[in-house]
Amino acid sequence: MGRRLVFVRALLDRDAALWYHIPVKFFTKQEAIALATVKRRSTVPYYAAAGTWVIYALLFPLYRVPHFLFVAVVSWVVFFIMNAVCGTVEVTVPDPPKKEETTGNPELDKMIRDGNLAISEMKRLNDSIKDAKISADIDRLEDLSAKIFAQVKADPKKLPQIRKFMDYYLPTTLKLLNAYDRMGAQGVNGENIDNTMQRVESMMSTIVAAFEKQLDMLFGSEAMDISTDITVLENMMKREGLSEGDGVQASGGTATASQGDIKLEL
């Protein structure tokens, strides 16, 4: 839509203010999502210094070197004074988008982006929904979701395990919570609204349990590895006579020390 002129007010002193124009680009809704307020030096001192030359040339002769030197000194003094008076002005401009960190895995990057958006939406819904029980459930879902995403980010091989979670369970949960939030905001008791909200409330405990199960499933292979290590360790300790109830065989000898021969105190 082109460029628009906005008026920016620069404070000159306590009693007066100067209005001047700064051309500012008109941004679309997507471009204006993030805005930042920055300080910029006022252009008034430059105009004042240039105006000094124009005024002097109209009122006094300006054809000798001393004339030019005099005007240069005066314009510099005017610039210095106006710069001290005007200072800087605050202008709202689009915040430059931060460069997203990438993992080198496009699918993992998408999971991270979608996960961050989902958690942000949960926080928004949590602030909007006043029901204490639902709010507590959303808190739990936020925590579980963050832990699920952290596990997958740490081990991208687990990404296929949460594909259905990302494609269906998580967006459906957000859809239900959004519907609950919208209906609760109507302030009307009706059959459709009340029944739908009650069904969402009764479903929340099941959803929380499903999120907990999803997080637990991510530790399946790790639990199996640890179980295998424990089994191997137990067998080795039994063979060496180091397990509980077995005697301790002295290395390099045939004598075996009984458990009563060794007494440990903590």
In short:
By secondary structure, the chain is of the alpha+beta class.
Secondary structure elements and pairings:
Blueprint: E1 3-11, E2 17-25, E3 35-41, H1 44-59, H2 65-86, E4 88-94, H3 106-128, H4 132-154, H5 163-184, H6 191-217, H7 220-239, E5 248-249, E6 256-257
Antiparallel strand pairs: 1-2, 3-4, 5-6
Helix pairs in contact: 1-2, 3-4, 3-5, 4-6, 5-6
Labels describing this entry:
alpha+beta, two-stranded antiparallel sheet, 58% helix, two-stranded antiparallel ribbon, 266 residues
Please identify the oligomeric state: single chain
Side by side, the strands of the main sheet go 1-2
End-to-end Cα distance, whole Å, is 80 Å
The SSE order reads EEEHHEHHHHHEE
Question: Can you tell me about this structure?
Answer:
The structure is a single chain. It contains 7 helices and 6 strands. With 266 residues, the chain is of the alpha+beta class. The strands form 3 sheets. The protein has a two-stranded antiparallel ribbon with strand order 1-2. Helix 4 runs parallel beside helix 6. The radius of gyration is 36 Å and the shape is elongated. It starts with a strand and ends in a 9-residue tail after the last strand. Mean pLDDT is 78; it is low at 1-33 and 247-266.
